Amino acid sequence: MVLISNRIFGLILFFTFIFTNISFANNGYDLWLQYKKVENKQLLKEYTENIQAIQFFGNSETIKTALKELNIGLSGLFDNQNLFENDSPKNHLLVFGSESQLDTTYLNLIKTELSKVKKDGFVIKQIQLNGNSQIVISAKTDVGVLYGVFRFLRELQINNSLKDINIVDSPKIDVRILNHWDNLDRTVERGYAGFSLWNWHTLPDYIDQRYIDYARANASIGINGTVLTNVNANALILTPQYLEKVKALADVFRPYGIKVYLTARFSAPIEIGGLKTADPLDADVIKWWKDKTAEIYNTIPDFGGFLVKANSEGQPGPQNYGRNHVDGANMMAEALEPFGGIVMWRAFVYSEHDATDRAKQAYSEFVPYDGKFKDNVIVQVKNGAIDFQPREPFHPMFGAMPKTPLMMEFQITQEYLGFSTHLVYLPKLYEEVFETDTYREGKGSTVAKVVDGSLHNKKITGVAGVTNIGNDINWTGHHFLQANWYGFGRLAWNPHLKSEDIADEWIRQTFTNDENFIIPIKKMMIQSRETVVNYMNPYGLHHIFDTGHHYGPGPWVGSLPRPEWNPTYYHKADGFGLGFNRTKTGSNATAQYAPEIAKMYNDISTTPEKDLLWFHHVSWNHKLKNGYTLWDGMALKYQEGVNEVEDMISLWNSMEQYVDSQRFKEVKMMLNIQLKEAKWWRDACLLYFQQFSKQDLPNGVEKSSNSLKEFQSMTFPFAPGR
Ligand code: BDP
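# beta-D-glucopyranuronic acid complex -> structure
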């Protein structure tokens, strides 16, 4: 008897174990669209009281998509009550297709709000009609309604009250776009979350569920465009064989309000068109692009346009034919114009033949062309003048081209920020850039105002993010890096949002509404950006990554053929000190900024210490504001970064009760990698720079147990992302 009960007990335990493990297993695939049961009593009460039936008006594919999402969301968040089939009760949630479908009674009740809606914005408002509560979601476009539905679901997920809900929100940016650096063989340049989502081999016949889920996730944060292919482009994507595949993706994305764009290889007329030249002023070349563009629009009527990397890092461009960026961009723009398409022409250019300073080259090449580009060209500028470093001063082009639309390019994938194994919350970086004052039209001329077009009244506006998405089950390799995709979307919608508020929303939707988790984790996320700067590139150091793959430190690299590919070019360590003199006594890159900024950076005493070594060559014994010398202060910063990762680990370990077991374990393992690599950065960089400073490490900085030689001999032939 006893034996049997023990066995039964054992079985029960076994099943409970399996069951709890299953119920707590969360692989992160659902991102921030978890739609977990609402536990907040107040919200449950409000929901039951205010929403007894749901009615939808409109039948476009987008409206059907919104309806489907509302169904998924509400049945996850609340016990399913078949609200969609219930037409008798009094209190409704009403979703109206677009303005034209609004009944005049409703139109009158929300007209003030609707009049404030711009483009694909929306209204969510509670109104009273004949004594009944009606929550109305409406917009001027169907995509606006879809955004309204996602917003409504977000409000519920983050447990905001429904009482007197009255939200009017419109995107501040037109083109909110992901840039996939995905190759046709499915490798991803600088991608660390597996291979490309796009399975070109099985397209167009096989539609992976992931394509749909990708579109859903993007639409939920307002992203409305995607460039499917790498900026280092392959012309094959423009052939009929591939355009069929692109069409299949465009068809999936369309109901979600997402347009597809492609990278256009400048030499495509030669490579796939059989022409002898790609000269943008050649009549055959012009015709080729016109025909090709018409062919694309014939296949994909709402195609977005081209993204072009020209005359940069070996990519072909108009300069190969003695022409300039304007000639190239305008030629393509003319082909796209009849169809409403745009050209996103990248300003990421630098040349090995220009001995001045790489940081100055994009500005020098582009600013003289201000006002020369056609109306459907937008120049895409990286946030800083070098290349997506952990910290860069804002790109001097922002604000310097009042007659040319400039779009922001951020990197979401962490080429220079620890790949996908380091927890770094990037919206903090994006916010820092957006908030910076360019002083181009006096105080308050922030980068955000340049990019949202308000500073110089721009016709097209855009924000691009080089995506961190791959085919890993959780999309981004590390659960917390989903927040960078999310936060990018939110800031592309409105570059004036606060990164802290975005983190709050994201944690609530992705993990829990429990404040015991939210408060400390949000703090950790916000701090994480400074932490990575501390253990990689403190005080304005930059581009000291190991060569090629950019994995880990390589400040010693100095023998690559192109000078500006060498870390030694950027840090300029010598017996005197460290840093790149970009002031008027050096490369004079500071002169590319407005006088107020140039003045601040020209003077070491007014240069913010976070940018010190970006602009100055500073003595090892220079006194920092905290009283330490540069050498001691820098060593202590490296140590601080390591200590902060240790703190992240202890915090995470104390959070186990709030997180499902799978995500808890996976994040924990990642944090341990991050700590190992933070120490690697500290030790390798300090040992290397110590050869120049010839000073001991200050108290409080741990000594490396490896030698510099050991660090220098490490190789990573299969580091991802190349
Ligand atoms: C650099 C990357 C390189 C990209 C290039 C670009 O190392 O792989 O092709 O930027 O943005 O950051 O074009």
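# post-check
DSSP finds 22 helices and 15 strands in the chain.
Residues 175-509 form a domain with the TIM Barrel fold (CATH 3.20.20.80).
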